[in-house]
Amino acid sequence: MQILTRFIPLLITGIAGLVMIISAFIPYTSEWGQKAGQFFNILAAFAFVLGGGNLLKVHLKKISDQSVGWGYSGVVLICFIATLFVGLFKIGAYPNPNFPNVPFSGETQGTGSWFWWAYEYVFKPLTATMFSILAFYVASAAFRAFRAKNFEAILLLGTAFIILLGSVSAGVFVTNWIPNDGPFGDLRLENLRIYIMQVFNTAGTRAIMIGIALGIASTSLKIMLGIDRSFLGSGD
Amino acid sequence: MLQMKKRNTLPALACATFAVLVSLLAASVEAAPPEPPTNLAAIDKPWDGGGVVFVTWDASTTPIDQLQGYEILAKDLGQTPVELADQTAEQADLEAKDQTETILEGEGVAPQEARQRARIAEEADPAVPVVEPTTWQSLGIISATETSYEATGLEKDRQYIFTVRSIGSDKSLSMMTTPTEPVVPEAAWFNLSKLPLLIALCVISFAVLLFVVLARGGMPMNIRTIAGLKAVDEAVGRATEMGRSILYINGIQDMDDLQTVAGVTVLGHVSKTAAEYDAKIEVPTSRSLVMTAARETVQSSYFSAGRPDAYNPDLIYYVTDEQFGFVAYVSGMMTREKPAACFYMGSFFAESLILAETGNSVGAIQIAGTANPSQLPFFVAACDYTLIGEEFFAASAYLSGQPDQLGSLKGQDIGKMLAGLFIIVGVVLATIQAITGSSGLEDAVNYLKEVILGS
Lengths: 236, 455
Known about the structure:
The structure holds two protein chains of two kinds. Chain A is mostly helical. Chain A has seven helices and no strands. Chain B folds into three domains: 151 residues, Immunoglobulins (Immunoglobulin-like, Sandwich), CATH 2.60.40.10; 75 residues, no CATH class; 175 residues, Rossmann fold, CATH 3.40.50. Chain B contains 13 helices and twelve strands. In chain B, helix 6 links the parallel strand 7 and strand 8. In chain B, helix 6 crosses helix 11 and helix 11 packs antiparallel against helix 12. The longest helix of chain B is centred in the C-terminal third of the chain and has 34 residues. Chain B starts with a helix and ends with a helix. At the A-B interface, helix 1, helix 2, helix 4 and helix 7 of A face helix 3, helix 4, helix 6, helix 7 and helix 8 of B.
């Protein structure tokens, strides 16, 4: 069992990692890296079945137990089955012009199909609604983050004030009395915003990016060599 | 009188004729197209990844002040007009799709979601290809002072011929030069432009392995305290005391993303602590493979905590691959069940703030970790503790406390020192170059920026 649960997964991980590194430097092997990626896609395709089965199991159990919010589980199951049905059977899809007499020749997502309709008029508005909620959360998070509690927080507040004001026309209006070509032109809010974003913000972001790149290199090496095995279960 | 008139008219007529001739001559000189360049040659770029050809020529004999530049054209010898039309259409589609994807990703939409939306938008409104009437494809126009061009983006293993023509300052075009011999932009067995990256990789890997070996040999490794990881026990303890659950979100990417792997690693430690404290941990995932990996990890943690009976696989479940569908589910669940502690460890996009703010509104203690720089400010603003980039990747080593894992962190520090050294050298060189205007230093700075950083 140790071979199946430890040795083989580690071997696959090591070989796949090595192939990806080699394919980055040796052009002749560049397709090997793509092939390794395709293997992952095949696994992920199988996982769809696993995911669908788990979704059914979890929500059927919630309905059966009548646990808190079981009504939502009912909605999830109805939507899941309905989408699966109209997608698999291509309900309402126009036949392919090249094969008009062949059943199911039309495109699932073709304009006019039920699947397309559900995507356009149900899924997209729901997604847009969730996305738009973000605007309110940004406001509430900014309100908390920009409280002038100490010196650092005051600096943050001041910087945010310049950036926000410099990004809107009101900011340009406030300081447009300063000549842009004059010695104090850099103090105009829109110019200050550009300076902060290009110098301070870029420097900070790059420092984080360097750390992330090194972290990725080191973690990848540990995983490839089997030093870090915690993703396979216990690290012991 | 008539004779007198004739005598006076003749010189005037001659003058007028001469003037017309001169102006016609001047006009013809002005309208003459520039001379084409000569000695055109094209060679495949050696030691590259393929698809690049160097084109060189001798400057046109037309004075440089009468030239706007040179236009470089290429022809794919193996390509039929139908293939060309298909390729142009495909390229136009790809460009439109890339543009849509970039905009969506910039807004915080997850990459898979952005790709799907771009594909559907492209199907609804396909880009109309513009096919040139000739099979000569213009690669670009460069300044008249240049006499070479690097043609990139060519198909490997196909034959190309090249030609160049001069463009006059009045936009007139010269004849095309005689096309070059066919060139195949082959890939070399090693891409030399990536050599600096390979060296950096070898140095960092060597440093990591060296410190792993030293740590195994007993060398003491001191790692600074990471507040976010130290707070894990506090968060789990709080959930236990309040009798509420712990929510663990492993990002919204699949197992091929290293952040997800790092998140699963941290999950192992959190679930072990939860098992020891007898707290309930719930892990909704947005990928089925992550669910499987998370189940294995949590099960192992419950076993190593000596509480295999307490493990409940139903608490680790799949929700949906859709970014905002997943957020809607998790936000609703948080509002209903009010978890006492929330962990967000992995790759997040626009949903980061929705999740963190919802967690904040239900009064949960929140610990986040991600390597997506654009989402870090949101987590910092809304969570109690945030693991920033490298701290997140260091979590596995930090939590395990194993000497060889801690050694790898020390090796990482060597990489940081190298990066710092290059930054200092680059800044000093660029500053001195800006003061002195030295062309040698300019070349050195450009080498650092384009070759070393560009690899």
